[in-house]
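Why does residue order matter? Because the sequence determines the fold. Keep that principle in mind as you read this record.
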Amino acid sequence: MRISYEWLKSMVDVPEDPSDLVAEFVRTGTEVEAVEKVGADLTNVVTAQVVSKKPHPDSDHMWLCQVSVGDRNVDADGNPVPLQIVCGAQNFEEGDHIVTAMIGAVLPGDFKIKKSKLRGVESCGMNCSARELGLGDDHDGIIILPKDAPVGMDYTDYLGMSDTVIDCEITPNRPDCLSMTGMAVEVAAMYDEDTHIELPSVKSEQGPDAHDLVDVTIDDPELCQRYTARVVRNVKIGPSPEWLARRVVAAGSRPINNVVDVTNYVMFLTGQPLHAFDLGKLTERDGCRHIVVRAAADGEKLETLDGVERTLTPDMAVITDDGKTPVALAGVMGGTNSEIDENTVDVLLESATFSSGHVSRTSRNLDLMSEASIRYERQVDGANCANVAEIAAALFEECCGAEVCPGIVDVYPVVVPAPVIDFRPARARMLCGAQIPDEFMVARLSRLGCSIERVDDEHLTVTAPTNRPDLTREVDLIEEVCRLWGEGDIEPTLPAARNHAGGLTVEQKRIRLIGQTLRACGLSETSTYCFADPNDLVSLGITEEGRGIPVKIINPLVADQSEMRRSMLPGLVRSVAYNLDHGVPNVALYEIGRVFFGHESKSQPDEPTYVCGVLVGKRADDAWNSKFPDYDFFDAKGAVEQLLSALRLTKVRFKVADAQRYPWLQPGRAAEVLSQGEVLGWVGNIHPASLQKVGVDVPVVAFELSVEALLRLAVRELPYVDVPTLPGVTHDLAIVVDESVTYEQLVQRIGSAGGKLLADVRLFDVYRDPVRVGKGKKSMAFSLTYRAADRTLTSEEVEKAHEKLVNKVLRATGGKVRS
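Structure:
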């Protein structure tokens, strides 16, 4: 937000030195990006007078002029002498006061004024038009000043354009500060001063009522909460008055004509975007123009004011002529088919509020950002639409010679009441850590536009202004009090405690252990956005079962980050895609963070913590003496096993993942992770079809585990078990079973049949051969270790136990011992 110091002075008392205000802005939480002097770009541009005007000796349309610039040009004796300038303009005469750019001036567009020769005659400057100085579009002739204009004065000083502009970075929660009146209120609260803001009003209304000329229909109140329309007739299109053009330039815009400049000026003044339609270009039916606000049709076209034809989608809102032809992209930009031009006579003025989320997505998806969209994205005060239309109509009357039609068409389906908040000064003092007087709180909150009533000695009722959507809770008011008091003025204190020794909790230590273990496995920690695209789960094929409902962001800054994430996997896959696109083929990342599961019956979402990891490529680049295999399922499974082992989880199992429940995982290369019968999460290869949708064409192995479940099932101390001192006896067992029998099933059967003497089971071979083993069969070979804790086993005991185990396993699995 560019703040003109000269403009601000007209609304509130400010320090003489702008640097004092800059320091106060920073102290109260408004960052200042730059401070610049306006008018410095027009150095060596001065007021002048035409002394003589003669035809150019070698041209039928150029003039040879002697132009006096006072003592800005002198001879060797110090006496003022005129400049010789060749000029092609036709609208001046001898004696006229004009504006001249002297040698050394640099005009907008980096146009440098140098001594030159035109048709063989030396020219030492240039007589300027408004467009050449960046002060308007008028290029028909040079600027003619009043007869009493001084000679040799800097033109910026003559216009009063010597101004300081403070460029502030406005946070998304402060849309009120995207206006000069909002900044004046902010400054008034900072210095505890009154504002003296003078707003124009319509002097007279004449002609037919606006309701007879225009009607408005809003198809969907979610897209448009309020739409007001005023009609002004018989406007005279032309350059804006100097004061208006000056303030539009200071705000960072370019003067175009008086109608467009008025709408821009009022937007910068109030923060409410306006749009002016050429009433004559809208379809008339039954003597009336019909404005319909609706969602765009899929594939509908609109050529915007920047000359680009846009293809629209149904999540965009449009202003239409009689519901048919779009004439503006709601909240973003108007269309060329209804723009103001030199032939415009009657104007339809729009002052409306549109959905911040829809405007944000429209602006981002079309890569079309405007001053209007910036304000709508941050939420515009719908309660002020009619008042702002009145201000603009008054300026049309003043600057354009327009006739203002009586009445205003006002469609207001969604009325947002002002928040009423219970405020406790004692609570504010406790949270701020400072003894802030009640009088200070009441005074500063009142300066911000709050209405305050005292209920009793401990409670105040505060009605927040409707242009402050960030003030909805008591803590929001406390924040305002704290920042205006000054955080730097609050004395630092240690928190109260009773001999509490510092240190990490058991939970914190275990979370750190999770990170340490995964880093030891070769993964690097990363952090992705908690904001997510609504299509994240769909694009990867992740089911919504067990993930609640989306938590929508009220005022998203980016169209593809409009809700809180329900899984960390899409963010990590995007990180993989980014690395691959930038030539990094080996990626091993993990993140520990929150996801957000909303509920229709609860005001607050669940925020469980998960740990998620992705592996792509190889563990390291190949070298001359070593080759590394690609990451596969077992690398991710190994990292998970190391993690579970570090946390000492017991009864850990890996169960084949059901393809219906885990459609984003590749069947046969995915598993559920369980401990003590509870599902902790999953590990496996991401389905190639899912990866293809997000632009990744290499295998990705991933895992996602619930941190709450890991911490709950972790064992702090394992029971001590003596190191075995007695020898064990090892037997190998190869069993031929059907392909459908899994390793997990066999191990469970062997463990159950082995009893107390079976100390260890290890799979060391899987063999398939349709001739030797049989079609649809496989041979799985295990190494079994038998051991007793209190004695050395005899061969007879081992043989008996082993024979019993084999018989039970064969009966349970339908297998046979491979000879």
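The longest strand covers residues 45-55.
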